Hints:
CATH architecture of the largest domain: Beta Complex
Number of helices: 4
Number of domains: 4
Largest sheet: 9 strands, mixed
Order of helices and strands: HEEEHEEEEEEEEHEEEEEEEEEHEEEEE
Strand content: over 45%
Low-confidence stretches: none
Mean pLDDT: 87
CATH class of the largest domain: Mainly Beta
CATH topology of the largest domain: RNA Polymerase Alpha Subunit, Chain A, domain 2
Distance between the termini: 184 Å
Shape: rod-shaped
Number of strands: 25
Amino acid sequence: MLRQNLGYKILALLLAIFLWFYVTISQRSAIETRTFTVPVELRNLSKEYVAAVTPARVRLILSGQPEALESPSPPPEAYVDLRHPKPGQRMVKVGYILPAEARLARVEPPAVKLAVEAIIKKALKVEVNVVGTPPPGYVLGEPEVTPAIVTVSGVSQVVAQVGHVVVNVDANYAGAGVPQTNPLRPVNDAGDAVPGVELSHSQARVALPIQRVLSYETVPVVVRAEGEPAPGYRIASVAVQPPVVTIAGERQRLSQVKYVPTAPVDIAGAAAYLRRAVPLALPDGVTTVSETKVEVTVRIEPEG
């Protein structure tokens, strides 16, 4: 019985071996390669540094089953670990993360040029650039800026170019008395903007004081006496100290003022020497620079 089926058994064994070789070779022939171009990520970089790689993208050539390479999940990644950065330039190997059931054939290029630079900072006073002109009859005071100082940060060769941090304000709106909040700009000594730096504040608040333009004139003081001395007496002399005062106001208003009178000095019935501190009677729109009162002396003597 065993000998009678021996031929069939040998044939079955040969068929099984053939089938195994066929499946194995078929599976091997199904393996293919595919190229993925991916960015090189910079990982674990401290905020105290900036870095860049050249080239910024590499090619990962992967091998595997077609279905594994069709839409790999997760997709392949390339990276450079910057956990311990060293300023300067050097060549570094590219790390990679592959999807399941995929194998790396090669990386093109296998290494990239890494440039690392330290971030530096410097503090600069905010400068106000006034554009436009104030309303007629007004002049601008000293601007008040908040913040008054900002920090500029970036790589050393770029930060070195920043000579000023400026904020523009429009003088046309200063008369409204409302502070203006406008962007801050880092510029070089020529006034050109410097890109590639960061500011600790993006805006500044500027209060622009404004005051009316005043003219000044020095005019005499005139004593205004009212009433008559006692019968048989007369006014011998009238003196005022100071004899002149400096007044301030708009030019057109001051052009109409030739002198400044005192408040009335009552001498009715006086028969003796009078000395009084008397206020000035200033016209509307006119002020004095210093004195608001003068000393008036009236000398009265008998007639004849």
